[in-house]
Design a protein that fits this description.
Blueprint lengths: L29 H14 L4 H11 L11 E2 L2 H11 L6 E5 L5 H9 L2 E5 L3 H10 L6 E4 L4 E3 L2 E2 L1 H16 L6 E6 L5 H11 L4 E7 H8 L9 H7 L2 E9 L4 E2 L6 E8 L1 H4 L5 H12 L6 H8 L6 H13 L13 H11 L3
Helix pairs in contact: 9-11
The protein binds S-adenosylmethionine (SAM).
Length: 343
């Protein structure tokens, strides 16, 4: 029989008032600091044994369909955090709080952290662990309202964090830092770039997705996501992660990827939603000759004006008539779409 969900017992926990908020550690005395460093080190030690004990105490059964693979390698949690280069005035979005092992690190580095967890039992565990982190807002919801839309609650939590930062007279960046659940990784990244652009994203994703995120034209993984990202971001795979660094182990490798938004390239895209839809339409037929796909998007051969326009685009950008979408680089796609969509 399934155990009912219970909060973990915390016999050794000090009273709330006896602990410094996570963000204010620098103001602690050296004695406090030593004590807190020890507390922090033990609190962040998310090992397989720790998770097994915690989950069995509260009767939590992992749901792998929700991408519940927890990072159990401390060095890699460090690497993920370090690679994000969080500054004290930054607002960080984390998707998938889990038990808050990464969240509490983010909280120490950032101005505000908005962390999202779909599973209410994990949200309870994370909230317990974050009780002293006064700069974290945990939202227990699905990050997506639907496939191509971020949750309104997530957006309003980010708005609030930005308002608080403004009120504090600070300026910082908006970053995504997360061990992303594989099931929503693509829509989360795509939709953020579309409607709530981050300055940078440092995330763990399945290796196959990391390849798609960073692929250049001609690579076997090159697809609509590669062009969408490649037209606006610099991207880099920072580290390939074997299954053993997660518990439970996923079936495939993962990777830490960093994306840096490049404003000067993003500003070349006249209409972001239109470009996004264009890429999706084109890459439904990535192996077909692009000219045919464009002609059919423009209404088919029965539309001679559209065919003439497409031929003019080919001439202007010096494209071979039989070129396929998979061989065209992101910046050329931006130019083609601009000309193609001219009224
Ligand atoms: N951050 C933790 C860590 O690094 O160990 C957990 C990461 S785990 C890969 C992904 C987390 O995302 C899980 O806690 C899962 O419940 C949560 N999750 C899955 N789908 C989600 C969704 N649609 N919206 C918000 N959270 C989701």
């Amino acid at each position: 029989m399934k155990k009912s969900f219970q909060r973990p017992s915390r016999p050794s926990r000090k009273k709330k008032s006896a602990r410094k908020p996570l963000r204010n550690r620098s103001r602690a005395t050296s004695e406090d600091k030593g004590e807190e460093a020890a507390a922090s080190a033990s609190a962040t030690r998310q090992t397989t044994a720790y998770l097994k004990k915690l989950f069995s105490e509260v009767g939590f059964a992992i749901d792998t369909k929700k991408g519940q693979n927890f990072l159990v390698d401390l060095n890699l949690l460090d690497l993920l955090e370090r690679s994000a280069e969080i500054q004290p005035d930054d607002i960080v979005l984390e998707v998938g709080s889990g038990t808050a092992a990464l969240t509490e690190r983010l909280a120490r580095a950032a101005f505000r952290v908005v962390t999202i967890e779909i599973d209410s039992r994990l949200a309870t565990l994370a909230q317990d662990r974050l009780v002293d982190a006064d700069n974290v807002r945990l939202v227990n919801t699905d990050v997506l309202a639907r496939k191509n839309k971020l949750s309104a609650d997530v957006l309003s939590a980010l708005d609030e964090a930005e308002q608080e930062r403004l009120t504090a007279g600070k300026e910082g960046r908006f970053l995504l830092v997360a061990n992303l659940p594989y099931c929503v990784a693509t829509p989360v990244i795509s939709n953020l770039i579309l409607s709530r652009p981050f300055a940078s994203a440092t995330v763990t994703v399945q290796y196959e997705m990391a390849e798609r995120m960073t692929a250049t034209a001609g690579h076997h993984s090159y697809n609509a996501l590669s062009v969408w990202i490649g037209s606006q971001c610099r991207s880099e795979i920072i580290r390939i992660l074997p299954p053993a660094v997660f518990w439970p182990r996923p079936k495939v490798d993962s990777a830490i990827v960093r994306l840096d938004l490049q404003e000067h390239r993003r500003s070349q895209i006249l209409d972001l939603p239109r470009f996004h839809t264009f890429l999706r339409n084109i890459f439904c037929h990535r192996r077909k000759v692009l000219r045919g796909v464009l002609i059919s998007l423009a209404g088919g051969k029965k539309n001679p004006e559209a065919v003439a326009r497409i031929d003019m685009i080919y001439e202007k950008f010096n494209l071979e008539r039989n070129i396929r979408a998979e061989s065209i680089d992101p910046d050329t796609f931006v130019k083609i779409e601009r000309e193609f969509s001219l009224p």
